[in-house]
Amino acid sequence: MTVIEVKDKKTKKAFLDVARLIYKNDPNWVCPLDNNVEAVFDPEKNNFHKHGKCIRWILTDDSGRTIGRIAAFINDKKAWHYDQPTGGIGFFECINDQKAAFLLFDTAKQWLQANDMKAMDGPINFGENDTFWGLLIEGFPGEPLVMIAGLASIRDADIQANIDRYLPEISNYWESFAAGYPWAIVREGVHYWSRIIIDITPVRIWWWDDGLAAATRPHRWDAPADVAAPPSDPAPQAPSSAAPDWSPKSWSEQADEVVAAGLPAHLTLLDPDGFPLPFRVRSLSRNATGFSLAPVPAEGVISRPSLPRSAFPPLRAAGCRLPRH
Question: Is 59 in contact with 67 (CB distance < 8 Å)?
Fold first, then answer.
């Protein structure tokens, strides 16, 4: 086996493709956007390069086939704040081979040691900790399903404060957010998405260890009876803006576009307290007046407005409610 540092287009492509090869038969795997991964290692897109450094490798077998990858990072703003200087590793992927995995780990370890690090933390990202951190250690093979009912507090009194909060949150996936459009256009989107921020105070949480068992009784957590959400900002006093001057598409045209896009479909119910409960359905199709949901599969995936009475009180189908406190 051979460890190769990623330095050119060929090795960059191999670094991205090895994950696709490893997970090609896993229906639950969602491939990260290549641009988002590459942005981590691009000094022009990731400002962590200003106060740190990173390196990455691929691993090939004796036939030249890529079988693994790993990256190592040093963030000088954090590395020296621990009891022992600590670097990081991430983006680890490997076939099911202990020797191959250990070779990748040892390669990263030796580079960190050569750069005066005494400990290794991972899997982490060379950037903010909202992406490419951690790993799945339980929950196989089904995916858990979690629904949170909460009280909304609306933040729309200080648009500049919202923007200052919003921009750092999207900095690590800016390329996918901008979608290639110039700043002159994207800035309008920033204003739109940051003009209102909604904070949620959970009052009830339902969850299933396996989402395929969503027709069975869920686990449930309830907040203390006296829980209260912080008050919303006062409602704006200025008159509402004029509606956009364009001819909207008919609902049927928009519905056809959504179905053609193959987006996941959900049926939203309301519990007696008015909290929305969205359930993913297996599939849907268009009819003359709306949508037809697929029959409930044998394993019990919810696709109709009913649940076992042991799970919930009677429910009613409706839209979401978002009251201003």
Answer: yes
